[in-house]
Amino acid sequence: MTDEAPPADTSAGRLGLSGKLLALTALFVMVTEVLIFVPSVANFRLNYIDDQLNRARTAALALDAAPDGMVAEPLARKLLKSVDARALVLKSGDARRLLAVSDMPPEVADVIDRREAAGPAAILDAFDTLINGDKRVARMIAEATDAGDFVEIVVDERPLRKAMLAFSVNVLLLSLIISLVTGALVYVALDLMIVRPVRRLTGTMVAFAEQPEDASRIIVASGRSDEIGVAEAELERMQSEIHGQLAQKSRLASLGLAVSKINHDLRNMLASAQLMSDRLGTVSDPTVQKLAPRLIATLDRAISFCQSTLSYGAAHETPPARRMTSVADVVEDVRAGLGLASGGPVGFVAAVERGLTMDADPDQIFRVLLNLGRNAVQAFESRGAPDPARDQIRISGRREGGVVVIEVSDTGPGLPKKAREHLFEPFQGSTRTGGTGLGLAIAAELVRAHGGSIAAVEGTIGATFRLTIPDRPIDLQARARERARA
Questions:
Q1: Cα–Cα dist 407/467, whole Å
Q2: How many other β-carbons are positioned within 10 Å of the β-carbon of residue 87?
Q3: How open is the CA angle 476-481-482, to the nearest 5 degrees?
Q4: Is the dihedral of CA 195, 196, 198, 202 positive or negative?
Q5: Which pLDDT score, from 0 to 100, does residue 9 have?
Q6: Is residue 12 scored above 50 in pLDDT?
Q7: What is the rounded CA–CA span in Å between residue 359 and residue 362?
Q8: 33-71: buried (b, 16+ CB within 10 Å) or exposed (e) per residue?
């Protein structure tokens, strides 16, 4: 046999929520920097050009005001230097005048006309200057002081590019600092508000899944009112329900183990008692002859119950062996099983229609009625010594078409609200100290196996349970013959 390698842990290669948040924050910061940087550089270029053209206007006015347009060459060069231009041209009317020129400028490679409104193309022009501005000459044009006139200068783009690069570095540094501070604050805020609570949720779910029986691993809701708070509250509720269900199943398993240990010995004891009861049939005493059949039948039922004790919750109850059964006989067996003889501490009233029969398994219906009657007796005992004038059990039966209706009622203290909420659930419906709550659960299972229903009747003195057992859909003539034989 070869050992299988454990599955590789891929969690290390996956980016957690904190890592994703950090990556998204960095991405958004970069996008923000681009959105800030691009228009800022384009706007700086235009402002630089406008400033240079404004200085050119001032120099043009000085040159144009000279007598006969004649300006000494040293002064002209100083004016051109103040503008950072190689040539200065002024258009006045229909004439263009070259006011000053330092030397013969090289071929112009770019034309910048500020008389036109700047649009989105200004961004592309700015990047073009950054890339190619160190090796070309540009001609800049702007309106002069008079309408229809313009001033024109020929300049190297190298100073413009140098200024743009310096401005870009400053903007990038400032944007980077602002973005880092903003990103850090956003990251810390989201980490505190979302990431850590979500990590706490996932950690609690993993820890609870490892050992759901440990109540200390149930999450404690923080009381937040947002979506995470709702998730914490719902998770706490679900984990508490799962823990309760596991505790209930553990209790059921422990009970089943305990019952299985005593089941073998109990069956042996009952078998021995059955052998001794068989000898009672040979005694000629009339009282013994009257009680012996009931004793033998009771022992037979007890042995049968022991054999099927572990069926509840482990597999299923035996399917009912249905036949036409006298309801009055089953009720009388229940009275004997409860030990409620005439003149006893608890009154017993049987109000069954004369000749009423039902299509059911008599042993299972006996178990149902016996569980309900025993619950009533225990309810009487819980409030003190039973009083026959006050404490009474009544079993009634009637036929409603193809359905037999049986009601078991008592004059006890009734069902408390807590018991009604989980009435037919095992280990939930009992209100008596030491009770398991299995009686009603077993009764409900047996009734459902007959296709019937059982429910508590509201608004009655004490507790009243109504169960309905429908007839099987068989041939009516065969049913009539069975009733006649019964």
A1: 6
A2: 21
A3: 95
A4: positive
A5: 47
A6: no
A7: 9
A8: beebbeebbbebbeebbeebbebbbebbeebbeeeeeeb
pLDDT tens for 284-343 read: 777 766 666 777 777 666 666 665 555 544 445 678 999 999 999 999 988 888 878 776
> Measured between alpha carbons, how far is 119 from 38 in angstroms, rounded to an integer?
13
Structure tokens at 200: 């706490």
Residue closest to 423 by CA, chosen among 396, 392, 462, 454:
454
Q: What is the band of 38 on the pLDDT scale with cuts at 50, 70, 90? A: confident
Judged by DSSP in three states, 22 sits in: helix
Rounded CA separation 446/361 (Å): 10
Q: What is the secondary structure of 266-292 as a DSSP string?
A: HHHHHHHHHHHHHHHTT---HHHHHHH
Classify 74 as helix, strand or coil: helix
Among 113, 124, 108, residue whose Cα is nearest residue 50: 113
Per the CB < 8 A criterion, the answer to whether 245 and 252 are in contact is: no
Burial call 309-325: b when 16+ CB within 10 Å, e when fewer? beebbeeebeebebebb
Token look-up 């200390």 returns 216
Evaluate if residue 272 carries a pLDDT over 70. Answer: no
Between CA 266 and CA 272 the distance in angstroms is: 10
Q: How confident is the model at residue 22 (pLDDT cuts 50, 70, 90)?
A: confident
Q: CA dihedral in degrees (72, 76, 79, 81; nearest 10)?
A: -130
Report whether 152 contacts 91 (CB < 8 A). Answer: yes
CA-CA distances (angstroms) from residue 288 to 280, 292, 340, 344? 7, 6, 19, 21
- What pTM value is reported for the model? 0.45
Which residue type is seen at 33?
A: E
Averaged pLDDT for residues 43-48: 88
Q: Which of 131, 127, 91, 129 is nearest to 110 (CA)?
A: 129
* Residue 396 DSSP SS3: strand
Give the integer Cα–Cα distance in Å for 74 and 54.
21
Give which of 44, 82, 287, 260 is closest to 171, Cα–Cα. Answer: 44
DSSP 8-state assignment for residue 116: S
CA angle 319, 321, 324 (to 5 degrees): 140
Average pLDDT over residues 82-90: 75
